[in-house]
Amino acid sequence: MGAAGGIASIVGLALAPVTLGVSLTLTAIGGVVGVAGGATGTICNIIYDTQQKHLRETIEKITSDFQNTINAMFENGAKTTCLSSEAVKTARLSSGVAKTARLSSDATKTARLSSGVAKTTRLSSEVAKTTRLSSGAVKSVRVSAQAAKAARSAAAFFGVLHK
């Protein structure tokens, strides 16, 4: 619009001598159109700048929100990794506790078996004593049997002689 107003002003001035000043109206109209075009351009630039500023603010807000969301995700990822590590440690400790419980149970069984072995050892000692005593009793019985046999033989011998 500013260019059209400028051209109209120049044409009005150029035709002024020929039109005896009537074309000066065209110059005035060209000036008004030029001013209106300039004002329109300025207003359009102001509106454009305002819109751009608003869009820039909107983009900055979206970018900030996105960055905050990403940071929160990284923090949660780090926490999850930490919790995962703690869960692995807990599982290892639980495994150790289970092994300890099994070992404790085995130790209890071993203690019971040791008690049984001690009782068996005492009983074996008693059996050995009894066996020694029985062996002595068997020898005594043999000696008694031999003495009885000798007595019978002597009685038979003396009975034959005595008859």
Radius of gyration, taken over Cα atoms and rounded to an integer in Å:
65 Å
In DSSP terms (H or I, runs of 4 or more residues), the helix count works out at 2
- Major sheet size, sense and barrel closure: none
Mean pLDDT: 82
Q: How large is the share of residues in beta strands?
A: under 5%
pLDDT below 50 for ≥5 consecutive residues: which ranges? none
Helix content: over 70%
> Which class do the helix and strand fractions yield?
mainly alpha
Shape: rod-shaped
Instruction: Encode the helix/strand succession as letters.
Output: HH
Report the strand count: 0
Q: Give the end-to-end Cα distance, rounded to a whole number of Å.
A: 184 Å
InterPro entries: ApoL (IPR008405)
Protein name: Apolipo L3-like protein
GO cellular component, one term: membrane
Family: Belongs to the apolipoprotein L family.
Q: How would you describe this protein?
A:
The chain has 163 residues and is mostly helical. It has a domain at 1-56. The chain is 96% helix and 0% strand. It is built from two helices and no strands. The chain has helices at residues 2-19, 24-162. α1 (2-19) packs antiparallel against α2 (24-162). The longest helix is centred in the middle third of the chain and has 139 residues, at 24-162.
